[in-house]
Design a protein that fits this description.
This protein has about 160 residues and is an all-beta fold. It is about 0% helix and about 50% strand. The termini are far apart.
Amino acid sequence: MLVERNRVRRGLHNRRGFLADGTSGPQSAGIVIEHNARGDALTVTLKGNGAGAAIDVSRAGLTFKSQVVDTMSEPMTFTITNSGTAALETTVALGGENSAEFAVTGDACSGMSLPPGTSCRIGVVFQPSSEQIFNASVTIAHNAGDTPVTVALSGSGFRVE
């Protein structure tokens, strides 16, 4: 049988899988068919438009102005936008070494189903407990891929004499 004598191997340009990983937008992959007939292996190119959620975050980090120790800053915000073609599900968590110095406020994103083309906002405040530089992060888990998105947080505290 012809199929038994020839080998088919998958030579993907998109190594995660053709339209199988939830990635939205144009995608391509290829199937390489090796054979024992004259000529080179045959390549079949696959193209498609993946449908799925896609996450865009307006800021990679929030840097707070120096803040008087034991007082709360004004909130700083960032926006999460679903630039994909399916609903975006998110969960927001505060973490990092100095996370106790920061608080998430006005979380309009966690537990929401964000339709394509829409956005939500996350607010963060800073309340330093001592005179030093503090760092933490907001981590956004989502259904638009394997890797959570992280927004870095930093601020410093000072005392008024």
